[in-house]
């Protein structure tokens, strides 16, 4: 006979089992019932499409970078080394025309479709198809064939040796899509993206909110946040309030005048990062006075950039030391900044126009497109008047401005100094060295608005465009940067922007690129108390 | 009444045709190249030309209008350049939000304005009367975006009673509705007041009082009902203005409505979105005015349309 204390009735047994079970559940609770980490981001503009192939806006790219992988990617924000992503390794043929990529095995799209060479072929051919109407298509036109050799090997053939191929494949537009999903969704694919990335789309109500959740089967380093919620809040002041009230963890594009409020709040901070955006006046090199490079150099000495940054931009800007700010690939560092020396500027102009230049210089500026654009342009006008130049000033609305700059008049062709102004304010944030230079300085490029033509520059750019050696190619770009800075500019360089991002204190792991792209998947949040019942 | 409504409905397509022609002409008169805006500042000319061709923007204007009209007849308002999604989808998504906001703003104006007007009519030159007058000046002179930011600063940031922006619960609606409705409170109050004062001095009110009706009955049954006709008229007229004002309020409060949809489209010359939203705005104003005409007949059976 058993001692009675060991007797366990059926009912007691059930109770005991439940107790045991619940204590096990309790022990495992810290992982399963841990507060969900929802990273909340407010952006100034709404996401327009989640189809990488047709995208062109930064807010969209910040989101879908989490959903998609590319074959290769930049290692970090320095943009000096390309590393494997979906491709494990690659080789190129002797003549530089054939690239063979070995793909990672065992990767699956969010919809279960296996990732393979066919998916790569499908995605690249899709962006090349004129019927898709991708605004990014011309980046890819050097590709003539994509062959799926076997499921793990893809071969890309280019029309001519194409040193930029890897850089093109690292662009977010080259994200690899699930062929099954694209075929299934058709035109609605932009709202139902399927990639291989660390996050997948959970919910998207346009203009309201977009939620992505962690992909449990991600093949790489898993994302840290359980989910991310992106909300478009157009008004900058409202974004700041979202952040300071604890309704958002990250507020992008904080205007300089709103930084104080974020800084003063005990729970929030401002992150200041270099930006690849530079603001400048382009100078029409096809007619006087700026046809002469000496005059273009001269007015670069007429401007007090420090004063512009301090007085107009609340100190948030950098005096440029070259045409490439930090965050641009192949930056040739440390060109001497143009000294503010109005006397020197006056003398240099007098060398070219001994009797003075008496025609008015036509200045154009957009209003509201770049930080304080109109105020900056007016100040520049003042500096030019101060060295004895006559000026005419015109302010444009952005859409009209762009059209006028690019298509001045039907039949007159595009760009290349064919508009009526002598100088016009623009900015660029392109991080790719080749595109940034070619668009602005190649005499045959449609986007060269200044009509700039320098045989030496054309030659350097042409040589670089087929140079398969990365180091010597970057050297050529550095040479271009030096020549246009010291001898023959086509711009009156104003300032390099800085990026201002508001964050909740304790947030770590933000990876900020010069062109305002931000990687969020490794962000962690520590030490923040839950908002008090608000 | 029935034939009147039918006649009004029959003129509707003609009116919309007029609106569509006007919008189309204005859109093509204002400079700016939709294809370039769609392609983005970093696109090449080649890409821009491709987009221009894809959307038929390289066709002569009358042809473009013809194609547009044919599409409208099939219930297709075209696709957005920006999102590539159909405009009808965008309108279906954003219009309910705008309607919700506009109706809420109207309610704010009515619920605060009319009682305030009645009160100051019954107590002329009192404190309420002076309050309404100063409120009217404020309502006219404070821009909507400023009022919105001040309300947000006080009630969302300092007091934390409501969320600053977004849409979801009724608490999200409070600030945008107040911002939209408050400037109209004084206008409604003053209109109510002057009409009430006029009617309170009429003979039939004296008769009603003389025959011993209670104060409440005289004020609400007899005076208010007669004073409400101009209020309903103003409601109809202001509805259009509120719809327009919603564009600013929606931007400040990140409210996902049609006004913001339209404003963002104008910035980037997203022409099909602009055309589509303006058509729907025009249609709503026509509809609300027709509705107001019908309401007249219900409030005051003496009004007939022949």
From TrEMBL, chain A:
Coiled coil: none annotated. It is found in: Periplasm. It comes from the Bacteria. Transmembrane segments: none annotated. Residues 81-407 form the Solute-binding protein family domain. Keywords: Signal, Transport. PANTHER family: OLIGOPEPTIDE-BINDING PROTEIN APPA (PTHR30290:SF9), PERIPLASMIC BINDING COMPONENT OF ABC TRANSPORTER (PTHR30290). This is Peptide/nickel transport system substrate-binding protein.
Automatic annotation (TrEMBL), chain B:
The keyword Disulfide bond does not apply. The keyword Cell membrane applies. It comes from the Bacteria. It is found in: Cell membrane. Residues 95-296 form the ABC transmembrane type-1 domain. It is a multi-pass membrane protein. InterPro entries: BPD_transp_1_N (IPR045621), MetI-like (IPR000515), MetI-like_sf (IPR035906). The chain crosses the membrane at residues 12-30, 103-122, 134-161, 173-191, 271-299. This is Peptide/nickel transport system permease protein/glutathione transport system permease protein/oligopeptide transport system permease protein. It comes from Bosea robiniae.
């Amino acid at each position: 006979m058993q001692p009675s204390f060991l007797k366990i009735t059926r009912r007691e047994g059930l109770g005991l089992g439940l107790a045991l079970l619940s204590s096990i559940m309790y022990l495992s609770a810290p992982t399963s019932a841990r507060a969900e980490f929802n990273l909340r981001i407010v952006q100034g503009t709404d996401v327009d499409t989640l189809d990488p192939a047709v995208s062109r806006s930064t807010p969209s790219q910040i989101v879908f970078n989490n959903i998609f992988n590319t074959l290769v990617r930049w290692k970090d924000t320095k943009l000096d080394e390309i590393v494997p992503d979906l491709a494990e390794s690659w080789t190129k043929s002797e003549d530089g025309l054939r690239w063979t990529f070995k793909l990672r095995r065992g990767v699956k799209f969010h919809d279960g479709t296996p990732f393979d060479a066919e998916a790569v072929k499908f995605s690249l051919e899709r962006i090349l198809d004129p019927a898709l109407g991708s605004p990014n298509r011309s980046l890819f036109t050097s590709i003539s064939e994509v062959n799926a050799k076997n499921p793990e090997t893809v071969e890309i053939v280019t029309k001519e040796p194409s040193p930029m191929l890897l850089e093109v494949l690292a662009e977010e537009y080259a994200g690899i899509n699930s062929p099954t999903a694209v075929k299934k969704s058709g035109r609605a694919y932009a709202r139902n993206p399927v990639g291989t990335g660390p996050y997948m789309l959970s919910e998207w109500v346009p203009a309201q909110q977009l939620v992505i959740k962690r992909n449990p089967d991600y093949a790489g380093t898993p994302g840290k946040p359980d989910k991310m919620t992106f909300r478009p809040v157009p008004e900058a002041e409202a974004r700041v309030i979202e952040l300071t009230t604890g309704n958002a963890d990250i507020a992008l594009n904080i205007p300089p005048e709103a930084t104080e409020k974020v800084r003063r709040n005990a729970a929030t901070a401002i992150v200041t990062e270099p930006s690849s955006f530079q603001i400048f006046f382009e100078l029409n090199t096809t007619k006087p006075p700026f046809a002469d490079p000496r005059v273009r150099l001269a007015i670069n000495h007429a401007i007090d950039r420090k004063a512009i940054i301090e007085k107009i931009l609340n100190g948030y800007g950098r005096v440029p030391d070259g045409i490439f700010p930090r965050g641009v690939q192949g930056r040739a560092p440390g060109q001497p900044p143009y000294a503010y020396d109005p006397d020197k500027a006056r003398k240099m102009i007098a060398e070219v126009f001994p009797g003075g230049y008496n025609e008015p210089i036509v200045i154009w500026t957009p209003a509201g497109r770049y930080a304080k654009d109109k105020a900056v342009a007016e100040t520049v006008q003042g500096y030019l008047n101060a060295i004895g130049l006559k000026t005419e000033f015109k302010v444009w609305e952005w859409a009209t401005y762009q059209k006028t700059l690019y298509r001045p008049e039907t039949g007159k062709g595009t760009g290349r100094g064919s508009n009526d102004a002598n100088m016009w304010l623009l900015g660029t944030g392109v991080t790719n060295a080749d595109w940034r230079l070619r668009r602005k300085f190649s005499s045959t490029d449609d986007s060269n608005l200044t009509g700039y033509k320098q045989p030496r520059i054309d030659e350097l750019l042409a040589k670089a465009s087929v140079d398969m050696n990365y180091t010597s190619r970057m050297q050529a770009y550095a040479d271009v940067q030096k020549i246009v800075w010291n001898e023959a500019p086509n711009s009156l360089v104003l300032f390099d922007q800085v990026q201002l991002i508001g964050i909740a204190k304790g947030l770590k792991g933000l990876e900020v690129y010069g062109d305002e792209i931000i990687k969020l998947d490794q962000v962690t949040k520590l030490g923040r108390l839950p908002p008090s019942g608000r | 009444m029935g034939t009147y409504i039918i006649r009004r409905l029959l003129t509707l397509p003609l009116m919309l045709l007029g609106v569509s022609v006007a919008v189309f002409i204005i859109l093509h008169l204002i400079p700016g190249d939709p294809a370039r805006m769609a392609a983005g500042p970093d696109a090449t000319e080649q890409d821009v030309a491709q987009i221009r061709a894809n959307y038929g923007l390289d066709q002569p204007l009358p042809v473009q209008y013809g194609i547009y009209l044919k599409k409208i007849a099939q219930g297709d308002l075209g696709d957005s350049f920006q999102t590539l999604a159909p405009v009808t989808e965008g309108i279906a998504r954003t219009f309910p939000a705008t309607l919700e906001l506009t109706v809420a703003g109207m309610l704010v104006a009515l619920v605060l304005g009319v009682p305030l007007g009645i009160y100051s009519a019954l107590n002329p030159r009192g404190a309420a009367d002076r309050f309404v007058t100063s409120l009217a000046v404020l309502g006219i002179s404070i821009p909507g975006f400023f009022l919105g930011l001040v309300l947000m600063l006080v009630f969302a940031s300092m007091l934390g009673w409501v969320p600053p922006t977004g849409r979801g619960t009724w608490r999200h609606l409070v600030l945008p509705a107040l911002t939209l409705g408050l400037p109209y409170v004084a206008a409604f109050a003053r209109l109510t007041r002057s009409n009430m004062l006029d009617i309170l001095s009429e003979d039939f009110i004296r008769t009603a009082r003389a025959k011993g009706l209670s104060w409440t009955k005289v004020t609400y049954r007899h005076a208010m009902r007669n004073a409400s006709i101009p209020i309903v008229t103003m409601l109809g007229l202001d509805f259009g203005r509120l719809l327009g004002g919603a564009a600013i309020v929606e931007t400040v409060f990140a409210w996902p409505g049609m006004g913001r949809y339209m404003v963002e489209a104008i910035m980037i010359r997203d022409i099909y979105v602009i055309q589509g939203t303006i058509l729907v705005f025009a249609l709503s104003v026509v509809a609300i005015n027709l509705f107001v005409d019908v309401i007249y007949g219900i409030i005051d059976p003496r009004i007939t349309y022949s």
